[in-house]
Amino acid sequence: MKDLSGWGRYPRLSGPLDVAFDIGPAAAATANLPGVVARGLGRSYGDAAIGRDNTIDATGLNRMQAFDPETGILATEAGVSLAEIIATFLPRGYFPCSVPGTRFVTVGGMIASDVHGKNQHIDGTFGDHVEWLMLALPDHRVIRCSRDENAELFAATIGGMGLTGTILSAAFRLKQIETGWIRQTTHVARNLSEAVALLRQTGTATYTVAWIDVLARGDSLGRSLILEGEHATTEQLPWGDVRFPSSANGRVGVPIDMPGWMLNARTVRAFNELYYRNGARKTGQTTNVPWDSYFFPLDSIANWNRIYGRRGFVQHQCVIPVAKAESAVSEILDRISSHGAGSFLAVLKRLAPGSGLMSFPMEGLTLALDIPVSEKLMTLLTEIDALVVEAGGRMYLAKDATQSPTTFAAGYPQLDRFRQLRSEIGAKDRMASKLSERLGI
Amino acid sequence: MSDIDQQAPPKSLLVIGGTSDIGRAVASAYAAIGWKITLAARNIEAADRNAADIRTRYEAAHVTVRPLDILETATFAGFLDQLDELPDTVVCVVGMLGDQTRAQNDPKHAAQVIRTNFEGPALLLEMLASRFVERGHGLIVGVSSVAGDRGRASNYVYGAGKAGFTAYLSGLRNRLAGTDVQVVTVKPGFVRTSMTADMDLIGPLTAAPETVAARIAALQMRPANVIYVLRAWRLVMFIIRAIPEAVFKKLKL
């Protein structure tokens, strides 16, 4: 039995882990093991990457297969990590079209969660750049899925949380870039409506995201730093700078669980105050930031999930459709700030619609926050989820550990079709995770 | 054009055991510095998988796969004749842990473990050694094991095979000492690989395949005779070898 808890370490879960070192054994395990789902690097926050009865460790599927420098299309096995992809291809001038907030994720995991980055409003999700994928089904078949072949299964697998079969390999596009630097411009928003307006104004920038102080109240509710980014060109680099800096990340770590009391309303409020003021000083300024600290700031702290203590934390990420976005986010922030125990990292971002059957993004605003687990938390989350449902929004399954089946069903209108497809390929009851059991998928 | 402008042709590496995790890591390390790679393996499909990975990661133009069964000693001469060129360096990572209990009761299994770890690798490297001598230079790296330093109840069939291989390499090194052909014995200690995936390994004594590969690639710059990949192993094995047999035989190791 292995500890297979998600990155938030809530809920705590363990189960048998079947390690697959090659495509064949991974496909066989998919067909032979009941109640199974594949797991990559375990960076989904809740209970998505642990099977109901069995879990396949897909990190042994770590071979790259082919790269075409003309088209930028890279084919790899599903267990190859984003970190390896960037380390290999950034020095050659290529970068993935979409990256999530950590690079310690696998290709299979990125497709199953249909991850998005700070450029989703323009460039779409990771799934939008997938050319094809090989999928192992519970009936021993291994099939190729793309927009032309098995198109519906392809759409269901992108964002399908591993529940349509095991992704064995995939091909996806990398884009050409001139340098490994991002030109970052900081804007300050004194409250939520300013933040929303600024996110709209900066909507033509390739990357845009807002860090939001969730504990600010009253007139300052929703005060934020909006961080806009563009890939720096060679001419924009100061003379003498390395074009493709290698990663400086991974030197610091959190060796043990921090005591729970260290993160309380007062310490977080103080941190947020400092962070906000520091950002406010830089308003309107543009600086060159290396790729790793721009895209993956938390990757520099190994095991950062331990700062939330032994009880773990929940990451809550919802998206609210445009029409009600500002009012709903405002209400959610109001609940969070009166609750007190807020988070360092709350993020607000504009999203465009996703293309997978079960993809998370929709036209609107997404709000993501980390909250340490406590007795009071579940009541708070129930209240917030009700606001999300009322506004016609939905929750991100890769982050989820707590939502109810009704909240889930309300947010995903294609759920019936997804269930039907699962029955058609014999995946119903066979491919099952703790998440699919909890939500009745 | 001056001599400095002329690039030396890329050197070539032959990996015997191109599907093992250490073999893959060694091939990757050499491909990263521009060497031509040949992977010899019994399972061609698995070797092709590694070859594609190395081509993709290192933009390596010359990665070839050649079939070789280490138990088919009669095919060795033909195998070497069919190589595109005689390699500059050969690294033999072939090994088979086997099952100690099964080996005690099944002579066929025991023979397979001993032949895979000793007979095949020794005979193949001997043939390469004479070709290297004839050419005038070459580096032979044999990956043996700390298990060969002293026989223990828990794995002595494997250990005996590796002990034989270690002794063979030692003799070969001695014989070739006056030539430009070098022979290096590598004892990795515990390595985190698919072969040891189910074992509980002691963290500080366990190396990653990439660490083993880095030590082997470093041999190009810094020659050596016998390498313990993690230095702690040299001390551990010194102690284990120093225990008097009367005491050692009663220990559970």
Task: Give the helix/strand layout.
The complex is a heterodimer of chains A (441) and B (253).
Chain A: E1 2-3, E2 14-15, E3 17-19, H1 23-32, E4 36-39, E5 54-57, E6 64-68, E7 73-77, H2 82-89, E8 94-96, H3 107-112, H4 120-123, E9 130-136, E10 142-146, H5 151-157, E11 166-176, E12 181-189, H6 192-201, E13 207-212, E14 224-231, E15 252-253, H7 265-281, E16 286-290, H8 291-295, E17 301-302, E18 313-321, H9 322-339, E19 347-351, E20 364-372, H10 377-390, E21 394-395, H11 405-411, H12 415-424, H13 434-439
Parallel strand pairs in A: 3-5, 4-5, 15-17
Antiparallel strand pairs in A: 1-2, 6-7, 7-11, 8-11, 9-10, 9-11, 12-14, 12-16, 13-14, 13-19, 18-20, 18-21, 19-20
Chain B: E1 12-16, H1 21-32, E2 36-41, H2 44-58, E3 63-67, H3 76-81, E4 89-92, H4 100-105, H5 107-135, E5 138-143, H6 156-175, E6 181-187, E7 190-191, E8 206-207, H7 209-218, E9 226-228, H8 232-242, H9 245-248
Parallel strand pairs in B: 1-2, 1-4, 2-3, 4-5, 5-6, 6-9, 7-8
Helix pairs in contact in B: 1-2, 1-7, 5-6
CATH topology of chain B: Rossmann fold
Shape of chain A: globular
How much helical structure, as a percent, in the residues of chain A? 25-40%
| Count of the separate structural domains of chain B | 1
Kindly report how far apart the N and C termini of chain B lie: 63 Å
Measured by DSSP, the beta-strand proportion of chain A falls in 15-25%
Major β-sheet strand ordering of chain A: 16-12-14-13-19-20-18-21
Task: Show the largest interface.
Answer: A-B, 13 and 11 residues
Q: Radius of gyration of chain A in whole Å, from Cα?
A: 21 Å
Predict the CATH topology of the domain at 181-409 in chain A: Alpha-Beta Plaits
Main sheet overview of chain B:
7 strands, parallel
Low-confidence stretches of chain A: none
Assembly state here? Answer: heterodimer
Strand order of the largest sheet of chain B: 3-2-1-4-5-6-9
Total beta-strand segments of chain A: 21
Instruction: Based on the coordinates given, report the CATH architecture of chain B.
Output: 3-Layer(aba) Sandwich
Structural class of chain B comes to alpha/beta
Q: How much of the sequence of chain B is in beta strands?
A: 15-25%
